[in-house]
Amino acid sequence: MTARPRRSALYMPASNAKAIEKARSLPCDVVILDLEDAVAPEAKETAREQAVQAIRDGGFGNRELVIRVNGSDTPWGADDLRAAAEARPDAILVPKVNSAADVAAYSGPLHADTALWAMIETGRSLFALDSIAAAAATTQLTTFVMGTNDLAKEMRFRLTPGREPFFAALSMAVAAARIHGLTILDGVHNDIEDQASLEAVCQQGVDFGFDGKTLIHPKQIDLCNLVFSPTVAEVDWARAVIAAFALPENQGKGAIRVEGKMAELLHLAQAERLVAVAQAIAATEAA
């Protein structure tokens, strides 16, 4: 079983050369070189050139590299997608995906070794989540990314501390991602200085089933990594479940007793995944 940590995915404006250089040493799992929201119109072309050059130059270690392009309905979208596809980052993140047809159109120009990540950030996308996620079977789609700020703007949500207006959207997006084997990342947290509120929404993201969270500032990385990492107790329990099911006397059983608790085969699958994630995190942090 393979797993790649995506606990923290940091947006960095590709128009800012210093930010790109800084990203090479930050402890985030994913660096998203942003050509879209974080870049002013007059800096779009510079951002595109610098993102492509950053991919060519490398130096990001084991961090996953993603370019977020502008939408195909903007003056920069087509050139962004063409340049990003030629640069061959680990993935290209595309905004405002509303349908499976959008996924197919964006996926078409990509090289086989470049994944497609889709922003879920419109009201229309919420009514097409299953078909959008199902497009993974015939395209290079691997990941959903929640665009909670855009959702709030379009749907007139209030950005409450508990994010109650987002509950339906978040849970349905996770469900669609899981049905079709996608990774899914939670939306950004706008309050850069408030670590307590960041911890609360990270924990909420874990509870919802997200694999990690998108971030807007390096200050948010360490806490996000901590919350989205399995705890020592969780890893110990997972290893105990795996070991118990491996015992000769438990072969062929669908449910067994482990440390006084019932464990079924579904718990074994969960345990194996959790241990794989923990091992991948340990390998990442040791590199």
Could you characterize what this model shows?
This protein has about 290 residues and is α/β, with parallel strands linked by helices. It has two domains: about 10-225, TIM Barrel (Alpha-Beta Barrel), CATH 3.20.20.60; about 230-285, no CATH class. It is built from twelve helices and ten strands. The mean pLDDT is about 95.
Overall pLDDT metric: 95
The helical percent reads: 40-55%
Count of structural domains: 2
With strands numbered from the N-terminus, the spatial order across the biggest sheet is: 1-2-3-4-5-6-7-8
Number of helices: 12
CATH architecture of the largest domain: Alpha-Beta Barrel
Q: Outline, from the CA principal axes?
A: globular
What is the number of E strands?
10
Classified by CATH, the class of the largest domain is Alpha Beta
- Indicate the structural class: alpha/beta
Order of helices and strands: EHEHEHEHEHHEHHEHEHHEEH
Any idea of the CATH topology of the largest domain? TIM Barrel
What are the low-pLDDT stretches, counting only 5+ consecutive residues below 50? Answer: none
Short description:
This protein has 287 residues and is α/β, with parallel strands linked by helices. It folds into two domains: 8-227, Phosphoenolpyruvate-binding domains (TIM Barrel), CATH 3.20.20; 232-286, no CATH class. The chain has helices spanning 17-23, 44-57, 77-87, 100-107, 123-126, 129-134, 148-155, 167-179, 195-208, 221-227, 232-246, 265-286, and strands at residues 8-13, 30-34, 64-68, 91-94, 115-120, 141-146, 183-186, 212-215, 255-258, 261-264.
